[in-house]
Design a protein that fits this description.
The protein has 279 residues and is an all-alpha fold. The chain has one domain. It has 9 helices and no strands.
Length: 279
């Protein structure tokens, strides 16, 4: 049994970790929002995308707890199990992105796929870091190591790659699904995720090695953003840019972080109540 002082200390470490993650996530989210200033997305739609990412993370954890097949133990090899887990994460982030592409009326140009994907990935990452690494609050694990070496901005970058291909579907006059583009996006996002984790494992979680890979991946996403913006301009006649009406103030975007932490805690409570059923 832990003493009261130790419990208070662990709780304090957890609060500090969550606050640091929230601030870092806020900066990433703000940077993403500023990418497309010519045709900005509604802030509330971006917030919904963020919550979709949190939901995807919660559902994946629940399903992995309840369905043995999803754990990948049948693959035997630790590397194959790791690869399977990375694939499942990218698949679960892709599903809400496809829902957004079909249901958000302001999703009307290629670069929007990257922007919404980044918000989905950001929500998923914040959930993972709080739910998983929050349990390590008693360890002297620097926030920089957690951020650069783990979820943020990794999930944002991985999902943005898939988002590029989803966004390119907007160039189709009929706006129908392009299965090949969706598969390309899922496979490339999964591959980048798998390489990220393999490099982290093989390098002994070296912050320098993982950081270099993240910078290279950031360069790739930057080129995809440029390409998506150019494609949207060149095919402008196929697009119908919608004007925003009664858009809330820009600082409203930061409010979703406070709400999202509460939402993540609810998911953690649900998962905590579910785990005993399968033990």
């Amino acid at each position: 049994m832990m003493g009261l002082n130790q419990q208070v200390h662990l709780l304090g470490n957890f609060v500090v970790m969550v606050t640091d993650l929230a601030i870092i996530n806020a900066l990433i989210v703000l940077a993403i929002y500023l990418i497309d200033r010519a045709r900005p997305e509604p802030i509330l739609d971006l917030t919904k995308a963020f919550f979709y990412g949190v939901t995807a993370g919660g559902l994946l954890v629940l399903l992995i707890i309840s369905i043995d097949f999803l754990r990948g133990e049948w693959l035997g090899s630790p590397i194959l199990m790791l690869s399977w887990g990375n694939f499942m994460e990218e698949l679960f982030k892709l599903v809400p992105l496809l829902i957004i592409a079909r249901s958000f009326k302001h999703f009307d140009e290629p670069v929007d796929g990257i922007i919404y994907a980044a918000f989905v990935g950001s929500g998923f990452a914040l959930f993972e870091d709080i739910a998983v690494y929050g349990q390590l609050a008693n360890l002297k694990m620097g926030i920089t190591r957690i951020v650069v070496g783990r979820s943020i901005p990794g999930h944002v970058l991985f999902t943005s790659i898939a988002g590029y291909f989803v966004g390119m579907m907007m160039l189709r006059p009929d706006k129908k699904w392009d299965i090949k583009l969706i598969i390309y996006g899922l496979l490339l996002a999964s591959l980048s995720h798998i390489l990220f984790n393999l490099i982290a494992v093989l390098s002994g979680q070296s912050i320098i090695v993982v950081g270099i890979y993240s910078l290279i991946l950031s360069g790739v996403v930057y080129l995809l953003i440029r390409k998506a913006l150019r494609a949207g301009t060149e095919h402008d006649f196929n697009l119908r840019a919608l004007e925003l009406e009664d858009e809330p103030k820009g600082w409203y975007m930061l409010l979703h972080l406070t709400a999202s932490i509460g939402y993540i805690i609810i998911w953690m409570a649900i998962i905590g109540m579910t785990i005993p059923w399968f033990n």
